[in-house]
Specification:
5 helices, alpha/beta, 6 strands, 40% helix, six-stranded mixed sheet
């Protein structure tokens, strides 16, 4: 990955009473082997893991399916980022999204939620996916990680 390589953004989310709680977050620029090793230690065993199937995502999906007990699901994005942002904003407005204030990168998350800077919105991206899947589409219910 060069200087402009995308960050790897990971959030761990649970759903409770039709709200979601972002329990942990990580953002890094690890190379592939290091990333796989990290994911194995960071994500709870048997968790459901959603991964965007673009770029290196496909390889990550194949590797995790082969080497772990994670239930890996590929995310196929059908809408633009802007459309996704618009569809999930009511959940923020209604106070259905909670963020554990002790998690890492809280400033980064707040910054990405508030400012539209699409160069660095990797964490926001995975948070939007988690809301879309768990609240809008209602497919996830327990401990889920979005990578």
């Amino acid at each position: 990955g060069g200087q402009n390589a995308d960050y790897n953004a990971i959030v761990g989310v649970i759903k409770k009473d039709n709200n979601i709680i972002i329990q942990k977050a990580n953002i890094n620029k690890m190379e592939f082997p290091e990333l796989i090793k990290f994911l194995k230690s960071y994500i709870p065993p048997h968790a459901k893991v959603y991964i965007e199937g673009k770029a290196s995502g496909k390889t990550i999906i194949q590797t995790l399916k082969k080497e772990t007990n994670f239930n890996v699901v590929e995310i196929k994005s059908t809408v633009s980022k802007l459309q996704r942002k618009q569809s999930i904003s009511p959940y923020f407005e209604a106070g259905r999204v909670f963020i554990n204030k002790y998690i890492d990168h809280i400033e980064t998350i707040e910054e990405q939620l508030i400012f539209d800077n699409t160069n660095h919105d990797d964490l926001l991206d995975v948070i939007m996916y988690s809301i879309e899947y768990m609240l809008v589409k209602n497919v996830g219910n327990y401990q889920i990680s979005f990578v």
